[in-house]
Here is the input.
Amino acid sequence: MEEQLMFAQNNRERIQAVENSFGPSGKALSQPGRVLIGEGRLMKLSRRGPQPKAFFLFNDVLVYGSIILNGRWNKNQQVLPLEYIQLEDLEDSTKMRNQWLLRTPRKSFYMAAVSYEEKRAWIEHIEECQSRLHSAGSRPRPDFAVTWIPDQASAVCMRCSNSFSVAHRRHHCRKCGFVVCGACSKKRAVIEHIHPTKSLRVCNMCHSSLSTMKHRAEIKEESRGRGSSTDKICSDEDEVDWCSEEEEAEEQLEAHDPRRWMDSLMETWSTYVYLKPEHVKPLT
Here is the structure.
């Protein structure tokens, strides 16, 4: 009993320290039944290349943010419910080591650890927490955001096959993840599992498919006497400012020398801390 009380006190202090590290802009993390499982640093692949992020694993959510001062100050806090996370282990390649894919309804991205052992620790502990949540009763699995095909994977538009250049830039369809040109991705549409109201860039083919689905849904609603949907799909000229700084950094993956960012990770790595699993209980 005394050991459990001591653990509970230490857990509250650790969670408070995580809250404080994000300052007043961060979300409150303390709540009954929540336990901090582990914390450490991982590389997250984004538009500006691999970026070191501080990650905090709780028994129900995964929290991460940009590092301002190692171990003390973070920003751009993101909170991902574990019930809505899907992991995919990836083999090492010539460009990436100790990597895996993390999918959520709003976005999907690549992550990498400094070693294979660290990678396995993160994956296994996340899956263990998910298993405990599922055993306690879970909500239906959501649709997950597609993983964007890296820029360097295609020299031509994956819809019209025109070559990319300085003037003919690459873009990504938010629905299929294909690398497409501006002419093939002028349309905007709502993709509800990414954002319920914002209109996002999609390729012409996906726009046509989404429009057909939307039309069928409207007809179905009308047949039920509930009226039709009035969701707006933006015109070609509309520019929708919907991304946060964190999400905007995902827009375009670029080629980078893996040795450079892995060396950077080694220089600033803080060892992954795994807390006592016997104290982790499902939320009630």
Remarks:
- The mean pLDDT is 76.
- The first strand starts at residue 36 and ends at 46.
- The radius of gyration is 21 Å.
- The CA atoms of residues 63 and 79 lie 5 Å apart.
